[in-house]
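Final report, Chapter 2: Outcomes

The project's central promise was a pipeline that accepts a single protein chain and returns its three-dimensional structure in a standardized token representation, suitable for archiving and comparison. That pipeline is now operational. To close this chapter, we reproduce one record exactly as it appears in the project archive, with the input sequence first and the structure output second.
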Amino acid sequence: LLCGKQFLEAVPAMCILSVNLIISPINGLLAYQVLLPYNRERYSAIATFAGAILNIGLNNFVIPRYMQTGAAATTLLAEWCVFAICALASKDLLHNLKIRKNIFQIFAGCVPILAAGIYINSITQNSWLRVVLITVIGFISYLLVLMLMKNEVLLYLAAPIKHRLFKKNRR
């Protein structure tokens, strides 16, 4: 453990919230990159409001019995609620956009991060070493997967760097 044994009770809640690391960015993408540019901000507002009401309402029942683990679960349910509303509201727009391809590439890029995490956790008990190795190997493997899949966003961001490197090598 990174912070000591006194934080063991937080492990189940953190495991639940780790799933939120996947759904929350997708919600942001749908809300801010799809719905808002197409003047459907009311759906984004409705989704956010519904998620907040669901989270607050469920927390009143769940936290007294399940504490932080219950709060984490209700947060995840609220995020899924936001996702469902945003996905339904943007369903007709997604076929025109390349978002599906980008989402698939992002998920594919996460696979080696997960594999690296599982492998590194099996070979070392040192928490700090785990964090550093998973971060570095995960970042590099994520970029490699996106490069192999010719991710347009990554290629666009890498173009100025590539231009500068080749420009210096020509001199």
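Archive annotation: The radius of gyration is 20 Å.
This record, like all others produced under the grant, will remain available to the consortium after the project formally closes.
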